[in-house]
Design goal:
Arc Repressor Mutant, subunit A, mainly alpha, globular, 3 helices
Amino acid sequence: MSLPALYTAEETAAKLKVTRRAVYRWLSTGKLKGLRIGEHWRIAEEELMNFMSYSTTTTNNTSNSNNTTNNNSTTNNSSNSTSNSTKSHPTRPKGTDLLK
């Protein structure tokens, strides 16, 4: 029985070409699974591969849905721009103007 390959957060960041901070954020939110040993994190190679395959599929799905969203929002921009200009500031009482 062989032990799985374990990577540090720094090694994982280098492999993914991201910052260490991004790796720590993914670990703390559970997006990337790892082992915490005291103050140090270790990421198993299998978990890293799962994370990369999950990230690629969600990125592809997100880019497809963004294209659909962008197409829909483009057609509605003219109606949204007029309604946005008439809205008052949420924390300022209506009728109070700073530029008087």
